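Why does residue order matter? Because the sequence determines the fold. Keep that principle in mind as you read this record.
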Amino acid sequence: MAIQVGDLREYLEWLDAQGLLARVDEPLSPILEIPHLLRRVMYAKGPAVLFENVKGYPGWRVAGNVFPSIEAFTRVLGVEKLEDVGMRLTESLASVPPVGLREKIRRLREVKELATYLPRRVRRAGFKENVVEEAPLDSIPAFKTWPLDGGRYITLGLVVTRDPAAGITNMGVYRVMIKDSRRAVVHWQIHKRGARAYREAVEKGDGLPVAVVIGSDPATMFTGVAPVPYPLDKLLFAGILRGRGLEVAELDNGLLVPANAEIVLEGRVKPVLDEEGPFGDHWGFYDKPREKYPVLEVDRVYYRRDPVYVGTVVGLPPLEDAVIGKAVERIFLPIMSAVFPEIVDVSFPVYGVFQGLMIVSIKKRYPGHGKKVMMGLWGVGQTSLTKMIIVVDHFINPHDFNQVIWAVTSFADPGRDVVVLENTHTDSLDPASREHGVGGKLGIDATVKMEEEAGREPPLIVSPDPEVENRIAGVMEKLGLRGEDPWEKVVKGYLDTIQAWSRVRGSYTPSQD
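Structure:
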C-alpha cells in the first residue's frame, strides 16, 4: 500500500483526524519556549503540536513532535508493520534470477513495480510561491533549544546534496546552525553521505550545491534520518517508503528537491569552515569543545503561502528521536538480515540513545558465530558507530531486557566472551570518548557456547515433565488462572538448539566440508 498523505499539511490534517494533533494559540517564541513545550509533550508521550501564534514570525506556523508514535507512523505509511517497508527493497534486490518463461514474466512485473518508486520531475512546486533573497535566514523560525546552545538551529531539515562523481542524490538530517542572515554551518560528521559529496567536490576544487528542505510528507522526512546504504539514491528510497514515486522540482543550483516541501533553502557549500556549537544533543549533554564544519552560503529561501516550519528537539531521552530510532530499527531489520542472514531480530534500547547499545539475536550455527556477527556489524554502515553490542541466541527476545540480562549472566564468561576494542572510530557526539570521533567499543557474546568454545557440553536446562504440565494446566484453569510460563519459549528454543547442534555434529566430518 502507498502512503496516505501527499505533503506536510495533509499529514497534519490526518493527525488531527486521528486525535493526534494539539493546537496552541498562546504566543510562544522559537527561542527556548516552543522547544521547551515540545520537550514536555514528548516526555508525556503526547500528540503532534501545531503552534499557530509564533512570536516574531507573523503568518508562520510551527509544527513539532510530528512523529508522535510508532503506531501512527505505521498507519500513515499504509502498512501492517514497518518491516514490510524494508521487505519492499530486499525482495526487489534479492530475487532468484529468472530461468523459465514464467519466472521471467514474474521478474518483469517486479521490475515494473520497482519503477513505480522512481522520482518524477514536475515543473511547478508550491514552495516557489514566495522567495526571499534579502537576509534569507532571518525569515524562518528556527529553534534555539537549550540556554547554552550557540545559536538557532534547523533541526529537522533535509540537507540535499548530489554526489559529484556518481550523481547520487542524498537527503540527510544534519543539524544546521544559523550564523547570520545568510550563512549557516552544516554539522555533517565525516562518515555521513553529505560529507562524502563535500570531500569529492573539494578535491575537484569546486563548491557543492546544497538545499535544505523543511517540511514534507512523513515518509520523505523520515528518509533524511534513515541510514540508507550507499549507493542507493535517497530519492528512490523515499519512493519505496512512500509506496509511490516522489515528485521533485529542480532548483537554480541544479538540485532536485521534493516538490511538496514547505520551505527550501538554496545555496552552496564552499571549502570554508567555521565554528559550530555548542549544542545540547541527543545524549543529553552539550557537545565537547566547538569544532569547525563547512559553511553554507544561502542564496534564497522559498516557502509556501502560510508556511509551516517543522522542527524537533533533542536532549535526555526519551524524546521524538526515540520514535524515529525505533522506526529505523524495524524498517532496516530486513535489510540487516539480508546482509547477515543469521540475524533474527535487533533492538536499539531507547535509553542507549541508539548509537550507544545494540542487542542482536542470531540463529547460531558454529563456534565463534556470535563474535563474527559482532565484528561484521562494526564494519558496515551506521552500526559501525555503535559503542556496545550484545549478541544473544534467537530464542532470547532482544526487546526484553530481563531475558537479555539472564542470557548475559548465564552464557557470557568475562574472560572469554567480552571483546574490547580501543582507538577505533566512534560517534563524534559520544560524551565518554577520549578524543573526537575516536574511542572504544565493547562486545558481549551472550550466546550459548558450543563444546568447542566452552570445553564442555552446554548445561542442561530445567524443564517440566510434559504429562505433569498438562495435568497442572487443567488445575490452573479451574482456579481461573491463565498465566503462561514466561520461560516456555526460551526453554524450548534452548533445547531445540542443543539438539540441532548435536545432529549436525554427528553427521559432519572434515571430508564433507
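The chain has three domains: 8-311, 320-454, 466-512.
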